[in-house]
Amino acid sequence: MLQRPNLLTLFISIFWACWVFYGVVSDPQTNLLMIGCSPPNQFVVSDYTIFNDNLNLTLQEIREQISDPNKHFATAREGNGGNPVSTLFQCRNYLSVADCVRCLDVAAAQIRNCSTGSYGGHVVYDGCFLRYEAGDFYGETKGSLTKVLCGNQNAREVIPFTATAQNLLMNLQTATPKIPGFSAATKIQVPTNGETIYAFAQCVGTLTQSGCLDCLKAAYSNMQICLSNSEGRAFDAGCFIRYSTTSFFADNETIDITPLVKPGSSSNKATIIGGVVGVIALVLVLLALFAWTRRSQRPRRVPRGDITETSKLEGPMTYSYQDLKSATKNFSDENKLGEGGFGTVYKGTLRNGKIVAVKKLTTQHLSRMDEDFESEVKLINNVHHRNLVRLLGCCSKGHDRFLVYEYMKNNSLDKFLFAKTKGSLSWKQRYDIILGTARGLTYLHEEFHICIIHRDVKTNNILLDGDMQPRIADFGLARFLPEDKSHLSTNFAGTLGYTAPEYVIHGQLSEKVDIYSYGVVVLEIISGRKSEELRVDGDAEGEFLLKKAWKLYERGMHLELVDSALDSNEYDAEEVKKIIEIGLLCTQASPAIRPTMSEVVVLLQNKGLLENIRPTMPILIETN
Predict the structure, then answer these.
(1) Which of 35, 59, 97, 538 is most buried per CB count within 10 Å?
(2) How many whole angstroms from its chain centre is CA 98?
(3) Strand, helix or coil at 201?
(4) In CATH, which of 3.30.430.20, 1.10.760.10, 3.30.230.10, 3.10.105.10 is domain 147-291?
(5) Could you list the active site residues?
(6) Do the domains 22-133 and 317-406 sit in the same CATH topology, yes or no?
């Protein structure tokens, strides 16, 4: 006689079947990372009732599409009533159908908060990405969605972890565009302690293979700031990349990316040599840093490409002169944001409501720029880093040249150090600005395929975004250093008080000129004093900031340089002393013994690395 099935057993069987079908763990990963809404604009959307109806239709179509177990990406367009909507949705390929649909439902509910008076919006979760716009955006690889989010926990062993994570993410950015569907999940162990790093990369399905690669390269570059942490994410309009020491996908979702990576850079090779890297890396760093003060050497050159090889790069957007004129109210003084060595900057509001910064280049620089304007602007258009102000496009009108940049909400650093808001920056904000600026210069000098020398690093050219993170500005159309040269001989262009003596006196331009300027900026940030101020706080000696800093360092009285507006309980005295010494290392008289910017980043992030390194005296400093 057959027994009737136990109800509990039946329930467990059904649950098990659903669990196997939909995935190992039910988790739609609806941790919100970012939401953004475009401002209302009657020129873009004439009837919001019709526009919202079209948006709802596209969301229904996308929900039907992703109910297919093989679909993690969907687009839909509706154009009824002359108010078209384009919508794009993507969930991570390791999610089950149920979790993918659930993530869409959460995202759709969130993004509808935009739709009442907005012509576009986007929302990013760990598990999915949803975006809608009045226009076609499907081919975009970058835009206003650019963001990096780092975890708040340091890795257990920073140096071997960073080396392993860097290799893994580099291989992932190379392999993912070669995989159908542009999605890859993989993992690797840190050789020294067996800790596992899980990583995932994905591009939207409307991109080309080259577009996917470009987007992931930019994301990978921005991710560098997270690599000493146990978790990080970077994403833009076209791609998403994430790593963590905590598993966020099932083991059976991983793939072997080794065959898709160039020989010599595979993750297997990284595993083999990772142990050696972990053991000797710290020793090598210490020896290399110690060697700065022991011997002079030619500035290190990183292999670079040829500036003429710009045909493969993405060209900038071209704006019409009339649009820029209208956006800036005919370049009115009311809209003027400031003036620099390369031109005047105006705030502009484009027809779609987007706020930009428009730089009108000065006539004195046009003769040089006209020779290479198109190729150099095209090159700079491909410079993407979270600590650099992004170039959006350009415009030529007769003899006038214009560059259009993203707008920075909090203006420039000098306003917070020397103007009405003087003393308002906390120590953490100052440290973040010092570190972020170093990372941006590292990218320009060492990570982009052409070495870009800024020539005018100063507090006026360090802008602050809405999160008070630094963005280096005015690096466009600076100078490019050929691969076969350690420096250029050129006419002086810069700001006295920040400029290296070898450049002022002999016209010798190398990346070490930027490093000198950076050192001066570090001292300004810590002290809250301008570099050229002769009398500060009743100081009767009337010394320049650099001279003052050096004399205090010689007497072991570093902390007297610190801005009096800072609460001494906010900062660690030894950390501040170390950063003052880093500023002095950058301003040493000999360019050859100044650290590179990547070495500065290492020094800033690691304690104790300055124990055996002492800065030498800057030029033109008198000692007692």
Answers:
(1) 59
(2) 34
(3) strand
(4) 3.30.430.20
(5) 456
(6) no
Q: CA dihedral defined by 572, 578, 583, 588, rounded to 10 degrees? A: 160
Closest CA to 394 of 342, 420, 357: 357
Token digits of residue 540: 């009767």
Digit-coded pLDDT (tens) for 349-383: 998 888 999 988 765 545 555 555 665 677 677 78
| The three-state (H, E, C) secondary structure of 8-30, written as one string | HHHHHHHHHHHHHHHCCCCCCCC
Do the Cβ atoms of 440 and 471 come closer than 8 Å?
A: yes
* Residues 4, 6: Cα–Cα separation, whole Å: 6
Cα radius of gyration (the chain):
27
Contact 102, 71 (CB under 8 A): no
Q: How far apart are CA 351 and CA 364, in angstroms?
A: 31
Q: What single DSSP character describes residue 514? A: H
For 569-598, b where at least 16 C-beta lie within 10 A, e where not — what string? Answer: eebeeeebbbbbbbbbbbbbbebebbbbbb
Long-range contacts, 566-575 (Cβ 8 Å, 24+) = 566/423, 566/426, 566/427, 566/430, 570/426, 570/427, 570/428, 571/427, 575/431, 575/607
Answer yes or no: is pLDDT of 182 > 70. Answer: yes
CB-CB contact of 54 with 82 (8 Å): no
Question: Global pTM?
Answer: 0.56
Neighbours of 369 (CB within 10 A): 16
